[in-house]
Amino acid sequence: MELTAQATRRSAARDADGMAVASFILGLLGLLVLNVFLGPIAIALASVALWRGTARRGRAFLGLGLGIADLLVLVAFMQFDSTVSWNF
């Protein structure tokens, strides 16, 4: 019984670490493309990873910051172009 609980805790920690890394990658990608979708996903993944107690807190915080930056870049370009999307 103890082995199952310990394995479950390890798998939950790995899941949280994976979410932290995924939020970081999606936040970076969101600066270039599809920031309206990838920004909120990066924010949500980083928040869940931090809530679950990830060992990769730095990556989770970077993912959170990049997700917010994605949305700020989108708002800035929307103000500049007066459109909902932006392109180069």
Textual characterization of the structure:
This protein is mainly α and 88 residues long. It contains three helices and no strands. The chain has helices at 2-30, 35-51, 57-81. The longest helix has 29 residues, at 2-30. The N and C termini lie far apart (57 Å). The mean pLDDT is 85.
TL;DR?
The protein is mainly alpha-helical and 88 residues long. The protein has helices at 2-30, 35-51, 57-81.
Helix fraction by DSSP (H/I, runs of at least 4):
over 70%
Total beta-strand segments: 0
N→C terminal distance: 57 Å
Q: Outline, from the CA principal axes?
A: elongated
Mean pLDDT: 85
Keywords:
single chain; 88 residues; mainly alpha; 3 helices
Chain-wise SSE layout:
Blueprint: H1 2-30, H2 35-51, H3 57-81
Helix pairs in contact: 1-2, 1-3, 2-3
